[in-house]
Structure formats: C-alpha cells, structure tokens
Write a structure and sequence with these properties.
The chain has 30 helices and 30 strands. With 914 residues, the protein is of the alpha/beta class. Strand 9, helix 24 and strand 10 form a beta-alpha-beta unit. One of its GO terms (biological process) is defense response to virus.
C-alpha cells in the first residue's frame, strides 16, 4: 500500500483571507459585479477553513478526505494566482489613479470618477477586466462544488480556525541555545574505528585502510564519521583531509574532481579522468590523508577500482572511511571487516529524547513524564535521528497529557510497505505548525546531500509567499530566519558536514519525508521515477514548483516536458549559484519556454554563462525572485523595471554587466539588490531613494546624477555596502544627508574614491565627507580606499565601535598619520597599505602611551603593513604587545621597509615577511 501525501492548507487559507481583505483590491476600478463575487468568496472560504483542522487529521486514514484536500489545494493555488494578478494590476494603475484624501468607501469613490477618466476605459484595462471576470466565474464554480463535497465528508467545524491555530509552535528555547549532550552512546564505536585507522600501513603491503561503517538510515553513521573526522588527534595525524557526499550517483570523474577540489582548494580545470587522477596522485603522494566517502550506494567493483587508483600513492597510515546502508557496497570497497553500527540502547535514546524535548539528562527526576517519555523512546527503535526529531516535537508540548497523545497517535500504526520513512519522522512532521509544513515540503526541491544556504532559502520562501510579517518580527526575512531555526531545532535540517556557518542540509530520510509530503506540488526534473517525457509532462501539469541540476550544456530537448505547462511558480536550477562550474543554456529555452511560465514567482538562471534575457521577461508580473548571478549578461532589458512585485534581484559576479534598467526605481517592492563583483558597472540610475524597502544594496556607484544622499531614505539597509566614486561628492552636506549613522543593520562598509589623484581632487572636501559619513557603531568591517584627505576621520578608532573586527586602509597616500585604533576592543585584523605619507609609526596608532602600550589592541590577531615606501617602523611599539599575544601574527613587506630593532622580528615565530 502506498501512503498518500498529507496536505495542510491552514496557513495557506490565512494568507488567502488576508489578501481578500486587502484594501488594494478595492482601489481598483473594476466592475461592481466582481467585488460582490470576491465578497462571497470570503464567506465560503471561511466555511471551509472552519473544517480544515478536522480534514487534515482525518486525511491520514480517509482517502476521500485527502482527495478533497488535493482539489482544494489546486483551487487555493489558482485563487492565489488570481488575487496576485489583481494586486499587481493595482500597482500598475496606482500612478494613474486619483488618490482619496481621506478614508472613504471605495465603491463610492469610484462613482465620483467620470467614465471617461476611469482606467477601465483603456483597451488594456477593458481586456484585463474581461479576462479576470472569466477566471472568477471558473473559480466560483469550483468553490461551490467543493463546498457541496464538504457536506458529504462529515467534517467537524473548528471555530478556533484549524490545525495551525491549535499548534501555536515552540515556546521553549531553540536547539541552537541548548547544550549538546555530547556524542551519546557512540564513544565505544568511535574508539574501535580509531583503532582500525591507527593500524593502517602496519601490515605488509596494506598502505591504505578502507573502513566501511554500515547501518540502517538514521542510525548515526554520518554523525559517527563526523565525530572522527573532527577529532583533534585525527586532525593532527593526517596532513590532508577531504569529505565527499556521494549519494546515489557514483560517477568516477565527478567524485575524483570533488576530491581534487577539496584537497587543493581550487577549481579543477581538467576535463579528462586520467589527467585529474594524475594530478590528485601527485598531491597526495607520500602524504598521509583521510578521506570520508559518505552515503555510498555503488555496487560496481570496477567503478571503485578506477576511483581508488590514486589513493595508493598516499603515505602508509592513510585511511578511507565509507558510510553506507548496503553490505554489498561495503564488500567491494573494504580492506578490513565492515563496522556494523548497531541501534542505540533505550537508555541512550531516552537521554537524547529528554535532552531535545526538555533539556534534561534523562526522565528520572521527572516522574510525570517518565513513563510516557520512555514509551515514546522505545518507538524510536534505537535510532538517534528519530529521537532527535521526536524531541523537537515534544518541546512544544509542556503537558504530560500532550505527550500521551503523541504516544497514542494513529501514525505509529500506518503501513510502511514501499516506504522507508520512519513513523517517528512522519509524526514529527504531522505535529508541525501548518506554516512550517509548507516551508519544509518546499525543500523537497533539493536533491539528497544538497547543501543550501540559510539566507538563500529564506529569500526563496519569501518569494513564494510563505512568510508573513508578525507582531514580533516586522520584516519577512526575520520571520523566515525564525522559522528556519524552528525547523533546525526539530532536526528537520542539520548543519553542513563542512562546518560552513550558514550552510545546512537534510538527512536522507528527511529528504524522503519532504518529497513524500510535498506530493505532486514539487517536481524534480532529475527524478528517475519520471521515466519518460509524457510522464514528466503529466507530473508537471499538476506541479507548482520545479527544480533541476544544472548541466554543462542544457538544450531545449532537456525541457521538452515543460511544453504546455502554465502554472509553475518556480524554475530553479541547482546549485542556486556555483562559481566553479561553467554551464550553458540555449537561447531557445530562454526565449520560448520562460514567457509561457506566466505565474513564475522564482526564476533563477544563475551560472549559465552566456545569457540574454528577452524583453518578454517584463510580462512575468508575478515574479518576486530573479537570480542571474555568475552570468555574463551585459545589461538587463528595460522591461525588468515593470516587475513591480520583484523582491530579490541577484546579479553578483556578473562581471560584464555595464548598466541597470533606467527605471529601476520603479521596483518599489525590491528588498535585495546584490551587485557585488560587477566590476564593469560604472554607473547606476537615479531614484534609489524610492526603493525604501531595500535591505541589501551591495554597492552604490556615484556620478551621472546619482548622489550619495539617495541613501537617506534607505533606513532598512543590512549587511554589506560599498560606496564607489566618493570623489564625485562636491557638497559635504550630501554626505550628512546619507545618514549612515542611523543604518543600524549595516555590518560591513567600504568607502572608495578614485585611484586617480589628479588636480580635480579636493582633500579638504574629502576630509569633511568622510567625517560626515560616520557609520553606525554596529559596524564589524571597514575598508577605506584611495581617500585623498590628509588625516582620517575623528570617529575612526572611537571605542564606541565596540564590534569592529576588521579594518583595511589602502592607498590613502596623502595621509601623514594613522588613526588611533588601539582602543577598539574587538579589532582582530588590521591591514594598512600604500599610505606613503606616513613616515613613522609610534604610540599614536595604539592610542596609549608607553609603557601601557601592551594594553592596546586586546583582540588583534593579524597586523599587516604593505607598500609603505618611506615608512620607518618602530618595532618597540609592538614588542610588549607581541610578548602578550604570542599566538598573533604581524605581516610585513620587508622589501620596502626600513626597520628599527629588526632582531625582534627575526626572533619571533609569529612574524611573516613577504
């Protein structure tokens, strides 16, 4: 028996009812009949919303209820698309419509507008009204049918508003704030494998040990491998280390390429397997290495034999750890017996469950929860993943009776044939608040072992309309990060195996769960289950979100299944952005396919090198997210400025981009404009101040009419900002009006003047400008380039900048002294280069007189002086600091420095000369 996917619509209905109540709809000059029908929708949707809670519970065992919910889901998407069209039309007509001076009845106000002046009188508006009226008739009929079916399903009214209102979410601290209980129950396993590794190279011809860790999904194979990989003794024992997630596809060249890149930390340029293996062999030759191949499924010995050939060049003692669920896989790779990972005992599982549920060590001191907690632990069947997931669920349930409800859930008894998803995981999903269910199901677009960026995912959620501002979190992004942390705390996500701070992934079983619950709504073009074009097309016709792995060459044939598809909201090549790969997409796909996807919210073409967007891109009026990062696009069509709903425009590392659309200021809903790495972008259009919602503006290029004071109204800016062309500021008052001090969200600031120090430069004005561009004290990083004043601003070095960690001052050639920076409590990295007017450095840099100089720079880790041509470095200033901070580092360009007390530098192991 195949278990049907669960459908949860409570959160979706909340959004629909909010949209129906929006004043923007009634500001449209539409025929009166349309408004009356929209009004009836509200009451009918409320009738359905009242039984959603019961329907979502009964669908688990009642197929008829699930089928009704599937039809309701289709209707909800279509209704949402229609409301979005109405809201977008309201934005388009807004500049043309008279605005009422005070609150008034919208229908009365429309009656005051003469018919000849109404926007309904234009051919475009008339056609729009006709089309909308037809769509409304269609939705009204379907809604009526679903209401009739509802009566036959014997669903119970819930005037509290459905499942989403009953499950209010987590009231306890998130997992990120809980203390990790440690490596529970696996220390003996860890020591056994470490012992196997220590024997490598000791027996005859066996130089490399291949150690398979074998066990069922969710038992902790990867966690054990990570614990070994990150062990301090292991780090010190192996000169080279690499972690590779293999998963379903075992392709020798691709895996070898990834190993090469992981070890060399650079892009693999070789297109031939033999060549890359030769280079890999050279890199590891006579070096002791540790390689982890995680989640291997390959049973073909020949492929393993080819892949492993370079490994034999490693030094004795090298080791390869393989994690797999399949004994047959282990048998073809191992050089020692498999290490079978057994299920944990109930005591260890109880400890994991208690920790993740309540932050307790166990249930012994909590008799009200002990019996139920231990019974639930037994349901986990010795699997740590199940215990973590259920712990996250139980954290939101503070009453022992609620724990009893979980123990007695019908989900434990559902059939599992043809379904590897653990009941514990399905139960954890079932008890999620409704809004989190949508967010998690959307992640089914990601393939197994895909590492996604937390910020990237939140932008996608926002574009799909999943996030709504709340009383406690005014910005949608903050709501998204809160939701992400909730899912992370419940073990639906887990940190990247590489340790990257903002990168995460899903356990394979969680990925299976996401695909199961998403059902037909999410479609992966790479899904092997979709065996032929017709099958794929049938699936796509029902899907709303699609993703696919970007290939080196993607021609029109690959997208044949998209023919005739109209209702997709997501076109997402993966990885979302990957700088290492060079891929190509045919113009036919861009010109023919994309314009037909009228309802797209998310469109990414990132990483496709040679790209030209058609002017028809402006017709995708639902679009919220457009990612063209890493392409060689030279300019965007002017029609992009008609995408009034656009929230995110990513153009980073488009190194041939020369201009933005002239009317970019029309994108009044734009929140993120990332143009980092666009080195050919020498000018920007005026009117940025109109985009008051902007949070990300990676750089602003002044000149050609664009003034720095346009930053004035961008009070929501966050993250990093680079201000290019400050030599164009002729009136220092413009710098004051930029009001950087009040932009509390800015963490990184770069100030750049022209590198040409010609007669047009005015050092006095530049000194006044930099003084008035004082940023918020929340700043963490500051870079100043090509500044032409004779001294640095008074605020630079003020101890109120207590979070400032990185400072770079470069090519400020007219400055004759350095700012006093020693009082900055958090400063870790200081780089000073090309400040040729500075002849000496004394105590003024520290800001503290001798002999108290040792108290300066309490957090400094690296100090770098470069290209200081006439610079006399007084090393005695830093000698006491060096003695106190023995782990810290000074980097000096000795070729152009004259040094006093050079002996102090030569005797220090912490000084690097370049």
């Amino acid at each position: 028996m195949v278990v049907i996917a669960e459908i949860f619509l409570s959160a979706f209905f909340t959004v629909l009812l909010e949209k129906l109540a929006s004043a923007d709809l009634f500001n449209l000059s539409l025929p009166e009949g349309i408004y009356s029908r929209l009004h009836t929708w509200t009451s009918k949707l409320q009738l359905i919303e009242a039984v959603l809670s019961d329907a979502e519970e009964k669908q688990i065992t009642a197929k008829s209820v699930n089928m009704w919910l599937q039809q309701l889901q289709d209707l909800a998407y279509d209704l949402d698309d229609l409301l979005d069209e109405l809201a977008t039309e309201a934005l388009r007509r807004k500049p043309m419509m008279a605005q009422p001076t005070q609150a008034s009845n919208p229908s009365m106000f429309r009656k005051l507008i003469p018919a000849c002046c109404s926007t309904n009188f234009t051919p475009r508006a008339v056609q729009f009204d006709f089309n909308i009226s037809s769509e409304i008739d269609n939705i009204s009929g379907r809604l009526e049918d679903l209401l009739k079916q509802k009566s036959d399903l014997n669903l119970i009214n819930d005037h509290l508003g459905g499942a989403g209102s009953r499950r209010t979410g987590d009231k306890r601290p998130l997992a990120s704030s809980l203390v990790d209980p440690g490596f529970c129950g696996r220390e003996k396993d860890k020591q056994a494998i470490l012992a196997q590794m220590s024997l490598a190279g000791e027996s005859g011809s066996e130089r490399i040990r291949v150690i398979p860790i074998v066990g069922m999904g969710g038992i902790g194979k990867t966690t054990l491998a990570q614990e070994i990989y990150n062990d301090e003794e292991v780090k010190n024992s192996f000169r080279l280390k690499a972690w590779i997630c293999v998963s379903d596809e075992f392709e020798e060249f691709a895996i070898t390429e990834r190993i090469y890149e992981a070890i060399s930390l650079k892009r693999c340029e070789f297109k031939d397997l033999n060549m890359v293996q030769v280079k890999l062999q050279e890199m590891i030759s006579n070096k002791k290495f540790l390689l982890v191949l995680d989640d291997v499924w390959n049973e073909n010995y020949g492929k393993w034999d080819v892949l492993s050939r370079p490994f034999q060049a490693g030094a004795p003692g090298s080791a390869v750890i393989v994690t797999t669920r399949n004994v047959s896989v282990a048998s073809i790779m191992r050089s020692v017996p498999d290490y079978h990972l057994e299920q944990l005992g109930n005591e260890e599982i109880c400890s994991i469950l208690a920790h993740h549920a309540r932050g307790w060590q166990n249930f012994d001191a909590h008799p009200d929860f002990k019996e139920t907690g231990e019974a639930i632990a037994k349901k986990c069947k010795g699997l740590p993943l199940a215990a973590k997931s259920l712990g996250g669920l139980l954290r939101a349930k503070e009453n022992p009776n609620e724990w009893k409800d979980v123990l007695d859930s019908k989900i434990w008894d559902l059939p599992t044939e043809n379904n590897d998803i653990l009941p514990a995981l399905r139960l954890s999903y079932h008890h999620l608040p409704s809004h989190l269910k949508r967010l998690f199901a959307y992640c089914s677009l990601f393939p197994k072992d895909y590492e996604f960026d937390k910020h990237e995912l939140v932008l996608l959620w926002m574009a799909e309309g999943f996030l709504r501002p709340s009383e406690t979190h005014r910005e949608m992004e903050d709501v998204g990060f809160r939701c992400f942390d909730e899912l992370l705390s419940r073990s639906f996500f887990q940190p990247s195996k590489t340790g990257a701070e903002s990168r995460f992934l899903m356990h394979d079983l969680m990925n299976d769960l996401a695909r199961h619950v998403a059902g037909r709504v999410c479609f992966s073009l790479d899904d092997k289950a979709e065996s032929n074009v017709q099958h794929r097309r049938d699936s796509l016709l029902k899907a709303r979100h699609s993703s696919f792995i970007r290939h080196e060459y993607d021609g029109s044939q690959r997208f044949e299944a998209f023919s005739g598809v109209r209702k997709l909201r997501t076109f997402l090549p993966l990885p979302v952005f990957e700088a290492f790969k060079v891929c190509h997409l045919t113009n036919q796909v861009v010109n023919d396919l994309l314009p037909q996807l009228h309802f797209l919210r998310v469109l990414s073409l990132s990483g496709y090198l040679k790209l030209q967007l058609p002017n028809a891109i402006g017709n995708l009026k639902h679009l919220r997210y457009l990612n063209l990062s890493g392409t060689q696009i030279k300019q965007l069509p002017e029609s992009v400025s008609e995408l009034y709903n656009l929230q995110t425009l990513l153009l980073c590392y488009c190194d041939r981009l020369t201009k933005l659309p002239t009317d970019t200021r029309n994108l009044i809903n734009l929140r993120h404009l990332d143009i980092a790495g666009t080195k050919e972008l020498k000018e920007m259009p005026v009117g940025l101040c109109k985009m008051a919602s902007l949070q990300t503006l990676s750089k602003i290029v002044l000149g050609r009419g664009l003034k720095v004071n346009e930053l004035r109204d961008l009070s929501n800016l966050r993250g990093a900002l680079s201000i290019i062309g400050l030599q164009c500021v002729m009136d220092a008052q413009d710098a004051r009006e930029a009001n950087l001090t009040c932009k509390q969200g800015l963490e990184e600031l770069e100030m750049v003047w022209s590198s040409d120090f010609d007669d047009s430069r005015n050092g006095m004005i530049e000194r006044e400008v930099i003084e008035l561009l004082k940023p918020s004290t929340n700043l963490r990083s500051l870079k100043v380039k090509h500044y032409g004043g004779v001294e640095f601003p008074s605020w630079l070095g003020d101890p109120s900048f207590s979070q400032l960690e990185h400072i770079s001052l470069s090519d400020c050639r007219h400055c004759t002294s350095l700012p006093s920076l020693g009082h900055l409590p958090s400063l870790k990295n200081l780089r000073i280069s090309g400040i040729q007017g500075v002849k000496t450095v004394g105590n003024e840099l520290c800001g503290i007189d001798w002999p108290h100089v040792r108290d300066a720079f309490p957090s400094l880790e690296t100090l770098e002086f470069v290209d200081m041509e006439e610079f006399l470095y007084l090393i005695h200033v830093f000698a006491p600091w060096k003695q106190k901070n023995k782990k810290n580092c000074i980097v000096l360009s000795l070729h152009d420095l004259r040094l006093i007390n050079l002996k102090l530098i030569e005797d220090s192991e912490d000084v690097i000369s370049t």
